[in-house]
Amino acid sequence: MSVARVTEITSSSNNSFQDAIEQGIARAAKTLKNVEGAWIQDQKVVVENGKISAYRVNMKVTFILAE
After folding, report:
1. Which InterPro entries does the UniProt entry name for this protein (predicted)?
2. Of 5, 6, 19, 53, whose CA is between 20 and 30 Å from 66?
3. What CA dihedral angle connects 64, 43, 12 and 33, to 10 degrees?
4. CA-to-CA distance for 63 and 34, rounded, in angstroms?
5. Which residues, in sequence order, are CB contacts of 9 under 8 Å at separation 6+?
6. Residue 45: how many CB atoms within 10 A of its CB?
């Protein structure tokens, strides 16, 4: 039997939502062992001078706890 835990993280990119997701997962995998998946809870942009300056995602990352 395995037990999973969910943690919420926010990631940002100057390029795209996809890049923000990939950076967030890569960073989570450095700290958390056994990352199994993620749910993108929210997406938003930061606007400066009428242009998008950052793409942000709020995600819930699921990982399996070690026994």
Report:
1. Dodecin, Dodecin-like, Dodecin-like_sf
2. 19
3. 0
4. 5
5. 24, 27, 28, 58, 59, 61
6. 11
Alpha helices for 1-67 (secondary structure H): 17-31
pLDDT digits (tens, 9 = 90+) for 23-43: 999 999 999 999 999 999 999
For the entire predicted model, the pTM comes to 0.88
pLDDT-derived band of residue 10, with 50, 70 and 90 as boundaries? very high
Residues contacting 59, CB < 8 A, separation 6+: 8, 9, 10, 11, 21, 24, 38, 39, 40, 41
| Separation between Cα atoms, residue 44 and residue 49, nearest integer Å | 16
Neighbouring residues of 27: CB distance < 8 A, sequence distance ≥ 6: 9, 11
